Each structure stands twice: as C-alpha cells, then as structure tokens.
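Cross-check.
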Amino acid sequence: MVSELQRLVDAFGARLGRSIAVDDARLKLLAYNAHTGDVDDARIESVMHRGVSTALVAHVSEQGAAQASDVFTLPPCPRIGITMERVGIPIRYDDALLGYVWLIGSDGPVGDRDVEVLREAAAQAALVLHRGRLGVDVTRSHARELVRDLIAPDQALRTEAGVALVEEEHAVAGPVAVLVAMVGGEEGEPLAEERRLALELAVDHCRRRLPPSRGLALTRPDHALLLTIWPGARSQVIERNAAELAEVLREKLDAELGLGRAACWVGVGGPRPRLTEALSSYEEARRAAEVARITGTLGHVVAHKQLGVYALLGKLTPDQLAEGIHPGLRPLLANPAHRGLVETLRVYLDHAGDAQRAATALHVHRSTLYKRLHRVEQLTGLRLDVGDDRLAAHLGLKTAELHPRLPASTHAPDVVF
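Predicted model, tokenized:
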C-alpha cells in the first residue's frame, strides 16, 4: 500500500510541479515527494517523525477538515509550527474518512487546474487506502482467530495455531508473557461498546510499541489480552519489560476511559518459553486482573507472582471457596450488620495481631478494638489467641473477598461498639 501511495504521490507531484503529501486520518504521514519550495516546522516534524503534535491535530480538527467534502484551506498557526497555508482535500471511500492529500502554499497559489488534479489524486488514494485497509482487516481478523486458538483448551488446536502464527509471519518464535486488561462492569456481563472500544484502543496502542510480530492482541467480551513475545530474553528481563508495558497499558486505558484509575486493572502472567504455552500465562494474567478488581487492595497493575495466597484461592471454584470458610465465620460475613466487626477483624489480622497498630488504623481506642474482637470470638467460636484459629479467620476473610455472595445468615444483628 505504501509503495502504491508513493508512486501516486510522485506521479501527481510531477504533473503539478509542486510538493504533495498524503496523511492518514490521524495525520500520520504516509507518502510525500521532494519539496520544491520552502517548508515550515510542522512539515519537517511530519517528515522526520511520521506524525504531528496533538496541538496540530487539534488545529486541523478545529478547522473542520474531518467534515469537509471537497478542497479546503488550512490557515497558518505559527504557535504550532504552521507558518505556511495548506490546501487539502479529504480522502474518502463510501463517506469513510481515510486520510488527506495536501499541497503547501510555499509552492505558489493553487489554481483551478491544481484543484482538479488534487481531486483526482484523492480519488485514486481512496482506492489504494481502501484496498490496504481491507487487506489489513482480513490479516488481523485471521491473526485474532489464531490467537483465540492459541489460548483454547485443546492442546492440538494450540499447537496448530502456534505453528500458523509463525509460518504466516504474524508472530516470531520465542518466550511469551501475556497481559490482560479489565475495566469496571458487572461480573460476567459483556462490556458496553464504549468500554470495549477503549480496551481495543489501549491494547493496540501497546502492541504498536513492540517490534513487528512481537505483539498479538485480542478483545474478548469482558476483557482484552496482549500477548508479548521476547526472543532470546531471560525470564527476569521479560518480567520487567512486561511490567513496564502493563503500566503503559493501564495509563492508556485510563486516558481512553476518562473514569479514573479505579475503573481499570491489568494483570501480568508469568513468562513461558514457547508460543504454544501462552495459555498458562494468559490464565495467570486473567486471574491477577480479576483478583485485583475484586479485592481492590492489590493495586491496578498486578503480576501473578504478587498474588500470594490469592493465587491459590483464585484457582478454586466459588463452591470450593465457600466450603473452605470456617463455619463460625460464615454468619458474620453474611450479615450486613456485622460489617464493622468484619473490618475490625481484617485490619487486626492484616497488622499481624498488633493491637496498637490496628487501633490506629481503625481510628479507635485500643479498648474498643478489644471489645470488638471479643464480640467476634463470641459470634464465630474462634479464639484469636490460637494460631490455627487466627489462620482460619485470615484465610476466611481473603476467601470472602473472592466470593462475596454467601448464604444469608440467620443470626440476629449485633451491636458494633
């Protein structure tokens, strides 16, 4: 596609005897010919970096370029490096905006003949970009199908997908690590369209930061994954790079959502030596993101190896989790009237039984803390000065965070001091 555009630009530039450039819809430079006149800082930036500043993008948008249906003029804006007038025309196919063709004012006035040639160039560029977009869409669609197979339960399917991804040059061979991103929503429910789009944009943004064939993306109904490949890298290097990329993903997702950090989480799976073992890393990344979302205490970017006891609990089914909760603790957890006692117990155990530190964290007097803990012992039958009981209580609280829906308690509400 790029070579076709370059031939088009060279041909029309020769016909016009002036500079011509083609951008995509985001003003990324796709092709240009030799400049015949002076250029400004904006054109230099575009050529050097194949992109422009957000301020310049905003300026073009403010001038109504995206809504234009024919030739328009972009006035100078020296503060963002545009010191020369530009004449542009949108490139459209079936009314879809694919990009722009530009002439620069330093080459002289744009006459009627120039305008007609510009329209012809835009029409031909539309065909080239449309064909290219169709090809990219088909290629990406097939790659996504292979990624789905790569994380399927069937081992034979995973093996075939791994071979196909490498043979068709969608991916290179090497160690992998998977990132999973989630956003707020009802558990198990498909995301609203705007949140799904935010996931797609954020994951694709991170995929493009990787070298070609080193990143594969897939958006699912309630989360998105980014499979990263690190040929020749050691596990520690992969973990560090994946963690850094996860932070970028979280920041981009936060920006796309505009809802604040509390609305998104990214899990990082451990490295695996081969592409066909990506499923294990994916499961770890997904579990890490889910636990981070449910507990709300582990942060917004969590590696699976940071889960601690949650890594074990996260492997159990809801029924298995519920069965593992101490029977005396279940009524306490199930009764909303006991929330104050549950929080007191959690803080006390999270502070390793240090009464002074727990009381400080709860902003209560130590005697109040002891009264609440005594009430917990009365209701649960646990003895908090016994190591096994204390462990059972702590595990029960951690388990309840992963399985909040417990049977209703028949116990009467207690009084929280």
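The two ends are 72 Å apart (CA to CA). The CA atoms of residues 337 and 415 lie 8 Å apart. Passed to J.P. for a second look.
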